[in-house]
Amino acid sequence: METQNTAGLSYLSYVVKNIGSLVFPHHCAMCGRPLEDGYFCEECYDKLPFINGNTCFICGCELPDGFDMCEECAETGHYFYRNISVFKYTREFSSIVHKFKYHGHRYLARPFAEQMSIKIKEMDFPVDYIIPVPLHHEKEEERGYNQSYLLAKYIGKTLGIKVLDDVLIRDMYTESQTMLKKERRKENVCGAFSVKNRIIVHSKIILLIDDILTTGSTLDECARVLLDNGVKKVYTATLATGR
């Protein structure tokens, strides 16, 4: 009996230790330097490519002073009303995002969502509900989680806004947008989404959450489907922008 209890306590200690490592990774997410708390060492935090100063009114990319819209948005209309992004999607930052999206580093959702929440609060969007961009169920099973939902969950909790994770559905298993050109990206997601319960979002203002904005094709298709199903307006927020 004593041996069993000892084994049980050892297993419990193992579980607690590993749960703790998910919440507090004890190393910098960028350089791997040991940390007592937090997610980034001071040196790496100072290197994070925050978007500062003047930005495009539509897509949220960084612009020189005196401009209110980037060339891309001036040439291409969007279904979403306005987007905010926290970071520029630089090569160095993309490696952290890849850890978050593809390599099980779910703990990064918390610090990323904290920064997104700060910027969303500053913009003071009049939002009724938050909706994450969904993954196809097969892709979510392969990955083990939807990174956009993790961000949305923490943002919703921080801002006190309800998250609807079962309204916008991804019906089609599409190839990754990463290596596709602009026109191909639009084709790839066309018809990929549907709305399951249109009554709950009718005449509401939605904040759509995703990880990266590049051409905006995915966010546009999601926003179009939501608007077609009675949504009044769609704002979007992404962790980073590749523009």
End-to-end C-alpha gap = 63 Å
CATH class: Alpha Beta
Proportion of β residues?
5-15%
Note the total helix count.
Answer: 10
- The sequence of SSEs as H and E is HHHEHHEHHEHEHEHE
Label the CATH architecture.
Answer: 3-Layer(aba) Sandwich
- The overall number of domains is 1
- Kindly state the percentage of residues in helix: 40-55%
Please count the beta strands (DSSP E, at least 2 residues each).
6
What is the CATH T-level topology? Answer: Rossmann fold
Overall shape: globular
| Mean pLDDT figure | 86
Over all CA atoms, what is the radius of gyration? 20 Å
Which runs of at least 5 residues are low in confidence (pLDDT < 50)?
1-23
Largest sheet: 4 strands, parallel
Structural class: alpha/beta
Strand order of the largest sheet: 1-6-5-2
Domain Double zinc ribbon: 21-74
Domain Phosphoribosyltransferase: 180-241
Pfam families: DZR_2, Pribosyltran
Family: Belongs to the ComF/GntX family.
Concise synopsis of the structure shown:
The chain is α/β, with parallel strands linked by helices.
Structural account:
This is ComF family protein. InterPro entries: ComF/GntX_DNA_util-trans, DZR_2, PRTase-like, PRTase_dom. Belongs to the ComF/GntX family. Pfam families: DZR_2, Pribosyltran. By secondary structure, the chain is α/β, with parallel strands linked by helices. The protein has one domain: 3-Layer(aba) Sandwich (Rossmann fold). About 45% of the residues lie in helices and about 15% in strands. The protein has ten helices and six strands; from the N terminus they run H-H-H-E-H-H-E-H-H-E-H-E-H-E-H-E. It has a four-stranded parallel β-sheet. It has a two-stranded antiparallel ribbon with strand order 3-4. Helix 10 links the parallel strand 5 and strand 6. Helix 5 crosses helix 7. The protein is globular and about 50 Å long. The N terminus is likely disordered.
